[in-house]
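Hi F.,

I've been meaning to write this up properly since the lab meeting, where we talked about keeping a consistent format for the predictions we share between groups. The idea is simple: the sequence comes first, exactly as it goes in, then the C-alpha cells exactly as they come out, then a line or two of notes. No screenshots and no reformatting. I'm using this chain as the first example so we have something concrete to point to.
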Amino acid sequence: MAVHSVMLPDRRYGREPRSVVWDDEAGIVEGTHSALPWMQRHLAAPKPVNYSREGRVLYDDPG
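Output, unedited:
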C-alpha cells in the first residue's frame, strides 16, 4: 500500500530519534533504529494459519 517513514526514540542511543522505513507491501523494514533486526525477524516469521470451522477460530503457527 505505502512506504511509511517514522522517527522513533531509541533507548540504545539516549532516546535520540532514529529512522524506521517500512514498506508494508513488500514487507521490508530499513533505517537506523537499533530494533531493526527484531522488526525484520518478526516480519520474516511464518504467519499464523486460520483453521476456522463451524464458528470456531483456531490459530496455529505452522513453524
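Notes:
The chain has one helix and five strands.
The longest strand covers residues 3-10.

If this format works for you, I'll send the rest the same way.

G.
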